Amino acid sequence: MKFQPPNTWKVRKFKPDDFLHKGHCDRCGRPLEEGRIMSWFTDETICMPCSGEEERIRYEIREAGFDDSSFEGCGFVPDIEQLMESDYAGSLRRRNWRR
Fold this sequence. Notes:
- The protein is mainly α.
- It has helices at residues 48-63, 80-85, 89-92, and strands spanning 37-38, 45-46.
- A two-stranded antiparallel ribbon has the order 1-2.
- The mean pLDDT is 79.
């Protein structure tokens, strides 16, 4: 006897990732002809100039004493000035624990 899934099950259809099929940067709208990369902070496909801007933001986060890996995939691009003034600033600081 062959297994028949109940009608309540939804069969997922394969949906190809659109990373390679996008033509423009999700953030600034530039063409992606010179290169593309996934954003460190969000799930956007971004161009190389926007990637350089993200690298600058990550550098500022590290220089301010925060652990930049805490922001990987957070869903937004952090504003360093707002981060310094936030109530969570103490909990996001880099810990210098020795093991």
